[in-house]
Amino acid sequence: MTQPSVILATSSYDHTIRFWEAKSGRCYRTIQYPESQVNRLEITPDKRFLAAAGNPHIRLFDVNSNSPQPVMSYDSHTNNVMAVGFQCDGNWMYSGSEDGTVKIWDLRAPGCQREYESRAAVNTVVLHPNQVMYENFLW
User: Fold this and answer.
1) Cα–Cα distance, 15 to 17 (Å, whole number)
2) Are 95 and 87 in contact, with CB atoms under 8 Å apart?
3) For residue 2, is it within any domain?
4) FRET pair for 78, CA 20 to 30 Å: which of 24, 39, 46, 104?
5) pTM (predicted TM-score)
6) Residue 97 CA, distance from chain mean position
7) Which of 17, 18, 27, 29 is nearest to 65 (CA)?
8) Which CA distances in Å does 84 have to 23, 123, 133?
9) Which of 53, 123, 121, 119 has its CA nearest to residue 86?
10) Which residue range(s) make up the domain with 27?
11) What is the CATH classification number for the domain harbouring 45?
12) Is the per-residue pLDDT at 133 higher than 60?
């Protein structure tokens, strides 16, 4: 089956991730996510991967594959991951958790590259639109 030109990805507390053909409303792929509820989804800028934030991890899935297995797992948070996003070139991912940390991940290398600590749970993280200015500071 060819992938639809416009897709939607959804997740919920039922421990699933679903891919939908936007024009027809047809669900064409379901991934079981038994470890946790899914708190947040984000697709990489190149549309190749889907990040699913759960408790206490992030799983990266290949959008174009039928495999239910993640291609990468990020496991250094210790509580619910509530925020996940990508830098515009797709090489860097950032995450925020109820454990009070923001983490920066290089998708080309294993492990967390940088960590920032907050005194409270982190519910959301956004990257400033002027990413070039902040690259030297954050990355």
Assistant:
1) 7
2) no
3) no
4) 46
5) 0.89
6) 12
7) 29
8) 27, 10, 20
9) 53
10) 7-138
11) 2.130.10.10
12) no
